[in-house]
Structure formats: structure tokens, C-alpha cells
Batch of 2 targets.
Target 1
Amino acid sequence: MQAQPEKKRHRFKMPSAFTILFIIIIIIAVLSWFIPAGKYSTDSSGNLIANTYHTVKSNPQGLWDVVMSPVYGMVGDKNTDGAISVSLFILVIGGFLGVVNKTKALDAGISSIVNRYKGREKVLIPILMTLFALGGSTYGMAEETVAFYPLLIPVMMACGFDSIVAVALALVGTSVGNMASTVNPFATGVASQTLGISPGDGLVSRIIFFVIVDVIAIAFVMRYGTKIQKDPTKSYVYAQRKEDWKSFNIDERTNDVEPMTGRQKAVI
């Protein structure tokens, strides 16, 4: 009796980020045909007035609006600002990383950091988190940190941590910085202007709050990082540790890497 050929199973494959975003755009466009539009009245300063919500003429989104929404999201239109500045920043950082990788400066830099902080790798956590927190607190650093992940992940994994620790340095660091915005023009500046007060009012309190939340965040990440250093299997992403290690070529970047040359130091 001839054996029947085994049927090929089609496993679900997670769609790309672009596919998910486009699906969300389509869903929102469809909902615009059914959900009534409305808005609040505002005063002379642009502040919303409570209990003034009222319906307005709907503006259903069609096929052309769906197609053009990524463009408007990038460059903006008369109603909203675009995200072109953040996108360009990430593109520039990506080009920079390409140059750095070409000169092998990143490999030498990672090896140098690992060797210099061998046995005291946890020192990197408060240093880097504080730097990112200062960026968030002073000028609203947030989305820009995406470009730093390819730098942080191999360094922290080579030091015995995992990719979560690497991402947390930038993500948690900038988040607490924005939460305790000291002179952030996009948070404190706008709020001060709305209230009609000086951005310097309450600065001391915000600095104290910044120090407190930064210390708490550092302690949180260091606690998790210490646990991973002692037992890597306790990592929440341990299942993909080998894949991450291979993807970032950490073995090649940390083994038999020659000392940094003057050219590589200049690139870094």
C-alpha cells in the first residue's frame, strides 16, 4: 500500500511591523465611517473647556487617505506635525553604525569595554541609565534610543546580561527621565507656558524627583541583571539567547580582537 504524502502544515507566521501598522490604519479608517466625530471647545489659550463636548461633521477616511496616511505621518500636514526628524535621526545613526562596522571599531570597542569592566560589569548599568535619563529629562529623548539598541545589546550580552537589560538601559532610562522632566521643553516647557509660569518654578523639586526615580529604576534593572549574571536560564528571553548571541556576532567581537587603533578610536 502506497504511503500518502505527508501534508505540509502551514504554521502561523507573525506579520511584520509594517503589516501590523497598515492593518491598524485600515481598521481606523473603517471605524471613521461608524463612530461619530466630536470635539471640545477651547479657550483663548487653547485649553479644553470641561463639559463642552459636541458632535461635529464626520470626516470618513477613504482609500486615498489610507494610502497617504504614512506620508502625512512622516512629513505632517496642516493639522499635525510629522515624525521626519526622528526618522532622519535613526537613518543617520544607522549610517553611522554602517561606517563603524566597516572599520571594525565597534568590535574593538565592545571587546575593550568587556575587558575593562570584567568583574564589575554592573557598573555600566547606573552609568548608562543615568545618561539616558538625563537625555529624557533635558530634551525629551525617547524614540531616538531605538538606534542605540544594536550597540547596547552586544555589549551587555558580552558582559553576562541579556537583551532585556540592554533595552532597559535606554527604554527605562529615558522613560524615568521624561517622567521627571527637569527642563524638557516638550513637557515642562509646554506645561509652564500653558499655566503662565516660569519653567524654572519647581525646578529643585523636579531634580529631587529625578534623582529618586532614577535610583529606583537603576536598582530595578541591576537586580534583574544580577540575577541573569548568576543564572542565565532565569532570563525571560533565555529561549532566544543563542539566536541573539549569533545574530550580533558576539563571539567574533569579543575573542581575539586586536587593541583599538587610532583610526578606530576616532570613529568611536
Target 2
Amino acid sequence: MTDIYKQLATFLDHLPAGYPATESGVELRILKRLFSPEEAEAAMTLTMIPEPVAGVAARNGRDATELEKQFAEMADKGLVFRISKRGKTLYSAAQFVIGIWEYHLNSLDEGLVEDVNEYMPALLKQGWLDVKTKQLRVVPVSKSLAAGMAVTPYEAAEAILNAQSKIVVSDCICRKEQKLIGKGCDKPMETCFSFGAAAFYYERNGLGRSIDKAEALEILKSGVEAGLVLQPGNQQKTSNICMCCGCCCGILKNLKTLDRPAMAVHSNYFARVDDAACTGCEACVAGCQMDAIAMEDDIARVDLQRCIGCGLCVIDCPSGAMQIVEKNADDRYVPPKNMLATYIKIAQERGLR
């Protein structure tokens, strides 16, 4: 049975976000926990492009009725992705992150969490550090922006929420998993937004609840007040916003171990200190999720190689000494237009076909 899981691991590794092999084989242990051999085989018949079961069955010599039943069960379990379009149900392969792992929000156990935590650094290196295009980006909290500062709609969380016709909010899987193993923090739990097709999937699978824009904006406000970093998907038309902390978030806590985390994040802003206004209270030091601020001669100093431009230090600062500054035009990042474009870029950067 090991061979089928190696095949599945290879299959997942040939999706844009990757699923690299490790010396310990932890990636295979994870798959054995999640997939039966039959489910592993079925998952490999899919592609990243949603399609009707009939086409998948014909391409793979399978009975369409049996495959439909199997895919439906796998979608319910978070092993494949399912959407409805013009009255038809379509299925596609799910990447491990962002995808299969997040879809197991309601079916975590300690063993699975421990394995995923062991695996995450290897996955982050290949699927994040070794490619230029990331799956997520960082946008500054709106209160950190100076009056009159022009911000494109895809860089303003409020504008992203207001543009949605379907919003589902769910618990943060990172904080939930850390609490399960006796770690984590006391920051808000219900902080992850999904939009569009992803929202319908989350709702149908019982992973979250549908909310209106007013409630979404209130949840956003509460998350910012709790000191959470805003990470929307790396697209101009995004399908999600995560509100993340540096102690639990699988991405941020691993980036935090780097010498230069700012180099591994898409952000168009950075923090700057007005020396004359700084009182040395250290509120910004305590609130920084990337340990990017330190005191020097009782004045806050920002390490630009660590600052990811989230803007939380600005709203934490009681004296108004912290400012969020836009990067130069040559250094500004323009995200791909949609999710497909993002994953095509990642695949190209990984040399996949």
C-alpha cells in the first residue's frame, strides 16, 4: 500500500503548491492518515481544472456512477474540491496547502497535527521560499494608512470584503490545531474569510457560516484590534482573507525563523519611526508579529529585512511615532489577476508543465 501513497505524494508535488518528499517520510504518514488507498487512486484522476465526473471517468476508464459517488464522499471529507456551475457538479484536485489541510478544519487529531507541524518547514521551503510568487500576500490595516494615501482596492481588506457577493467565515485552522496540542494563543478564532466558490465549498462542508458584509467588517475590526496580520490570497480578485498571528500561523511562524522574512512576503508597505515622536514605550515591539522592531537608545528601530508592512505597529503606537510607508514604484508588487493566474505563475517558477 505504500506505493500508492508515494504515487499520491508525487501527484500532489506536481501541483503548483507542491508536496516535497522528506527523509523522515512524514509526508507519507500524513497521506495515510487522510486517504484510503482507493481514495488516493481516485484523487490522482483529477486535475486542477474543475470538470464533470463523466469526463474524468471516460479519461480513466472508470464507471461514472461509481466515481461520482466516490468523489462526493471525498469532497465531503475535504480530499478533493467540488463546485456547482450552471446546475452541474464539477470536481478538481485539491492541493495540500492551501487546500486539503484547511479542509480538515473539523477533523483534526493530535497525531495529524503533530505530523503536519513537522512537515510544514519542508513544505514552506518548496512551496513558498523557492518560488517568487506566493499563495498569500500582506496588506496593511486601514487605520495604519495616513489620510489621503491612495490604496488600490485589492490592497484594502474592507474593499475586498465589500466587493463580495458570498462570504463565509470559519475558524482559523492554525490556532485550532495549536490549541489541540496545548499551544497557541488566546486571539480570536473565527477569523478566516472565504469568497465565491471557496465560500460555497466551506459552507456545504460545514467548515464555516455564511455572513453578510456588515458582520464581516465587524469580524475584521475585531481581528485587527487583536493584532492579527491581514493576508489575502495573492490575486487581485481573491478568494480568501486570513487573519494571522506569528505564534500559530503555519506561514508566519516559519517565516519568523528567517533572517529576512520581508524578502519572502508580498507587501507594498513598510513601517518607519518618527524619532522625535517616539516615547520609548515599546508598544510596537510587543505587538510586532515578525520581531521586526527593537529599541535602540530608547527609540524604536524597524528592521526593514523583517518588516512585512502589516501596519499593526502604527495602530499600537500611542504617540503616533510609527508610520506606514509605501514602497517605491520600482519595488511595488502587482498581484496576478486571479487564482488561476497565480497558480500558473507558481507552476512555471517550479518548472512544472
